[in-house]
Amino acid sequence: MSVSEFFNMGGYAIYVWPSYVLAAIVLWLNWYLPRRAHRQLLGQLKRRNQGKSE
Amino acid sequence: MFLWFHKLGSPPHFYRIAGNWLPWLGTIFLLLLVAGLYGGPILAPPDYQQGESYRIIFIHVPSAWMSLFIYIVMAGCGVVILVWRMKIAEIVLISSAPIGASFTFLALATGSLWGKPMWGIWWVWDARLTSELILLFLYLGVIGLHGAIEDKRVATRAVAILAIVGMVNIPIIHYSVEWWNSLHQGPTVTKFDKPSIHWSMLIPLLLMALAFQVYYLLALFQSCRTELLQRERNSRWVEELIAK
User: Residue B156 needs a FRET pair 20 to 30 A away by CA distance; which of A45, B46, B49, B113 works?
Assistant: First the structure.
């Protein structure tokens, strides 16, 4: 099987690849957003803590 | 074992243990994902009826399984909340909801993308598709209800009850293709006799399912830690953690 045949997916490329891309986006968001929220919260709490001790 | 479990119920321990697990879970997830993606879209042969289009199965079926599994976890947490009022169960329930909703959305969307070339139609109001759509609304309902009620103790009880009541939908989804005539094909893996899927397709499918399972833990631990930190922001252990 050649590379172009693989990407063509027997003519079903417009159905197969969006499925995989969609899954990649959704999984990435579910990992990235809580991670970012966690970082922001930690930073926020640290700043609050510094304000208290001064 | 019991002591370990008891410890896991305490917020600082859970926060720390979940944090320690994250890199391992991430590594295992990536390994399973690479193996599954190699075995599925690349190595497995085309289907004799559906050609290459069936390769959507490697996303669709694991997503659908996860949508059911996560809901069962949430309902289990609901019982634990109502009976034992365990703090960690509250956090697991509410952190699971967006992940479960995501997998349900993926199952529906990839199902549509598969339905169009195979059935000639994006969507039909048949039992399997409709009950899965109701599952999506149940997830969104849990998220919305929790956000809408000001008093968090009331909110927690409300979502626990909603999660438990929604459990009636789970067997309906699973058996819908047997109870009603459906465009959706019958089960190919969870049949009691031999699964009617060749091992060259089954193995990558199970690898992907396992990868999604590990991914759930990864995403769950990540958002549980955030939720825990948020709720316990004024407690002693958080102050000590910040001071470090």
Answer: A45
Domain boundaries, chain B: 12-243
| Separation of alpha carbons B115 and B174, rounded Å | 18
Total residue length of chain A = 54
pLDDT for the residue numbered B63: 93
Tokens of B143: 């998220």
ipTM score assigned to the predicted complex? 0.85
Residue A3 distance to chain B (closest CA, Å): 10
Which residue positions in chain B have pLDDT lower than 70? 1-8, 181-182, 188-196
pLDDT tens digit sequence for A1-54: 677 777 777 777 778 888 889 989 999 999 999 999 999 998 888 888 777 655
How far apart are alpha carbons B116 and B111 in whole angstroms? 9
DSSP state of A12: T
Chain B CB within 8 Å of residue A24 CB: no
User: Is the CB of B152 inside 8 Å of chain A's CB atoms?
Assistant: no
Judged by CB atoms closer than 8 Å, whether chains meet at A42 and B56 is answered as: no
Q: Which of B117, B215, B219 sits opposite A15 (nearest CB)?
A: B117
Q: Kind and range of the H or E element at A19?
A: helix A13-53
**Phi, psi dihedrals of residue A37, rounded to the nearest 5°:** -60, -40
Please tell me the distance from the alpha carbon of residue B158 to that of residue B142, in angstroms, as a whole number: 9
